[in-house]
Structure formats: C-alpha cells, structure tokens
What we know:
About 40% of the residues lie in helices and about 15% in strands. The two termini are about 30 Å apart. It is of the alpha/beta class. Strand 7, helix 5 and strand 8 (about 190) form a beta-alpha-beta unit. The strands form three sheets. The chain has a six-stranded parallel beta sheet with strand order 7-8-9-10-11-12. The protein has a three-stranded parallel beta sheet with strand order 1-5-6. Strands 2-3-4 form a three-stranded antiparallel beta sheet. It has one domain (about 15-35, about 95-385): TIM Barrel. About 45% of the residues are buried.
Amino acid sequence: MTKPMHETHRIAYDGAVDADGHILEPSDLWETYIDPRFRDRALRIRTDEHGLEELEIGGERSQMARRGMPSTLGAMGAPDLAAMQKDPERTYLREAPYGSMDPAQRLEVLDAENLDAAILYTTVGLLWEAELKDPELSQAYTTAYNRWICEFCADSPRLVPTAHLSLFDPVAAAAELERAIGEGAKGAYVAPFTHDAKPLGHPDNDPVFAVAQEAGIPFAIHPTFEPQWTKGQRMGTWENVKQLRLLASVTASDGVRQQFTTLFDYGVFDRFPELKVLVLESGGGWIGYWLDRIDAVYGHTFIGEKVPLQEKPSDYFRRQCWIRCDPDERTIPALAERFGVDRFLWASDFPHADHTPEYVEDLNELAGMFSDDDRRRFLGDNARELFDIDA
C-alpha cells in the first residue's frame, strides 16, 4: 500500500547531503527484531476502542502517542493534522509517504531532489523513551531498531544509518554502540533527557563518549517526546499550555540546547578531545548568542573560574562541534563566517509534519547566500567528512 511519489523540487547545486532525514519504521519492527525474551513487551501500533491507532509501550497503552497520532508521523506538508488524526481510515501505513519505508524508493526521492546522500534517524523511536522507565527494555528497543536500520541502509552508501542509544544505562549503551558500529552505523544519537535526570555531560556517560571518540563517529543529541517534568510549570495548567502553539514550536528543542551546554559544564571536551558532537533539529541561529554569552561568562566573570574548561567554549565548538540548521534560517551565512562554515549542516527532516516538500526552495535561496567554496561545504562536504560518506 504505497503512496505515489509526492511532488518534488530539485536542489540547484550538486553535491548536497541531507544531515537529518528520517524513516518510518515498519509497524512490526520491534516484534521482529527485538530479543525474543522481550517480545511480549515490544513496541507496537495498536487500534483503540474508537478504531484509532496508538502506541503500546512496554505492554502499556501510550499516554502521549494515542488517538490516531501515529497516522501523522509522515505527514510532511499535510494541511490538517487534526482531521487526519481523527479519521480511522488514515492509518500509519496508509499515510506513509513514498520513500519513507523502502530504501529503493528513498533513493528515487534523493535522485528527484538532486541529493547525493541522506543521514537517517528514527521516527517512532522518538516517542517511546518519555514513557518507558525500564532500563533493560530500553536497551532492547534501541538494539532492535539499530539492527533494522543497518539492514535498511546496507545496500547503498547513499543511505547512512545512525544508532539510537538510551543513556538510562550508559554502560549497556556503550556496548550497543560498539555492536551497531560493527553492523554499519556511522553515528549515534540520544534523547535530551534520562528518567534519572542525569545531565548529559555527567561522567557516568563517559563510556559512551569513549566509544564514539575511539570510533571517530559523531555523537548527536536529537529532540524527542519528553516527560512532562522536563517542561516545568511556568505556564500553569494544560488549559493554558494547549493554546501556546507558537511557544511550543520555539521551545521544543530547549532540552537539546540545555544538554549540549552540560557538556561544557562538565568539561567533556577536555576529557575527550577528539569527541565529535552534533546538535540536531534545534535550529542553528541561536548558536551565535549562545557562544557569545558563555564565552563572556567564562572569560569575564567569577563563574568562569568554577567551570572545568581549559579553553573558552567557542574554541571547543570550532574544533569538536557541529550544528544542523533548517533551510529557512537566513542568519546562518553570517554565523558560518564568524564561527567557521565547516561547523554547519542543513537538513530536510523528511517526512515529518513540521516541514514541507517546499524546503528545497528555501534551501536554494539559503545556499545562494554563500560563496562557491562555502556553499559546497555547507550543502554536502561537511556532512560527508563528519560521517565518512563515500557517495
């Protein structure tokens, strides 16, 4: 039950690499690929009493991904998500766009858009960690996904697999990263929280950083569903919060930015001077203010004396960090000129609902603002080097 190819647009410049594309997992992925002893608690898509789809996580009904929500996961450019979500006929599989679930189709989409390669991340996998508080089952979920995505990408260097890790158990996550790299994973990513609320930069996570550094692969932070406790109560009740749709759109990545900052508070880049850190799906324009602010605090206030850093934060950024931005961010060329064009990547977020197929038109305009050499780096060479892509 495959949709036809959607309307596409061509990137005007050759050599482009999508630094953060997504797939839609088969609905039976976790049942098929999970360790058999966990199969009864595998992640599943179920139908509720109203005929609408929802997730089942660890054998329990999801409280966050329910009432038809799975049908919207591939709704890139859809005009009315609410109507889709309430229609039992519009299911996760029926709404999956061309190229979201089949590697051969995805290559056709890349060709149609003039893309050399795409670095791929999960979709359903972004939803379950907020609700699952079992460290062992969390590892089983990530292992199942990583097995599948490495198979999905195995036949073409243009499809680049990255490993999903759960830091609920960092030692187990480090072992899983080693295993996934052996199967072809070229990067790793984590959620911006753990249920024990341990900061990302905490030394307990050093085993994962050590494996990523040794393997020379980028370690990324990606937004996910998060438990309500991570969001605070500044706006009071749900009745207030549900009206604040624009606020939600600009604060959804706060967790990523905050966890990225903890890497500096804990001196991670001095302990791991070759670790490569990538900030995903959080915009890029904020990094200018962020670097100016923490450089000033580090260099000119008493706070800097208490931070375990040997250099100012922007030095580490220029050496060990990369940031992915959206095609509609017009401040990026100026930031790239100041902090180094080699630190910046772009991404489509295909096929998620908060982006549209017209992203190519924005990307062409943004790419046209760079010089020829910088454009090549921004559009593709940075990602190619960071992920060791031979495509």
